[in-house]
Amino acid sequence: MLTRMAHASSLANRLDLAQPQRSKSAVLGIAMSFGRDMEVYAESEPASHVYKVVSGVVRISKLLPDGRRQISAFHTPGDMFGFEADDLHNASAEAVTPVKVIAYKWHSLLAAGSQSASLVRDLLNLTMVGLRHTQEHLLLLGRKNALERVSAFLLDMDKRGGFCPVVELAMPRHDIADYLGLTLETVSRMFAELKERGVIKLEGARRVHLLDKDRLAALGA
Fold first, then answer.
1. Is 57 helix (H, G, I), strand (E, B) or coil?
2. Total number of domains in the chain
3. Do 20 and 70 share a domain, yes or no?
4. 53: helix, coil or strand?
5. Residue range 144-180, pLDDT digits in tens
6. Which residue from 170, 173, 192, 206 puts its CA 20 to 30 A from 105's CA?
7. Domain coverage including residue 171
8. CB within 8 A of 125, min separation 6: which ones?
């Protein structure tokens, strides 16, 4: 099975922008830009569009009744987000960094899908991979300790960045804490512990050198 990023890329490549000369099944997309911390959409807003990240990072978050925030996902270039089971968004989407997205009308996707079996297959695959990612995140929150969560998070960011030796974290540590279900202090302490173990090297708050990925993988397993 293709990775989540590969599915998103495959689907996105089928979503032609407003170029009617290409085919009648072209899906109209609208390019949009958002500044840091701007809202792409709010919780409970009508879920009329889905979005492809062109550049930057988007977070999906929900404010809990007690005022705490839970971040359920970070979306990076090539990802698509905004799919919902009903007509309203279950969480909000915000720009972690300045972002560019392309918004597609959900009904346009459905109409295009009625003419293209491959598009339907890509949509289904993207949904299933997204479900798997959600299941992995639930496992991380429910069964892993703080050090395992931070280690797994760094490996995930490394994978999304193309397996480079240096991970550039777009999000601040309080975002990481809300994604991992930890306090800010605990996240900072886990970064410090990984540094002391010689697994990572920190260059500022967001530039992380992965010195030993095998040990990091063992810690995050």
1. coil
2. 2
3. yes
4. strand
5. 899 999 999 999 999 888 888 899 999 999 999 999 9
6. 170
7. 145-220
8. 1, 2, 7, 10
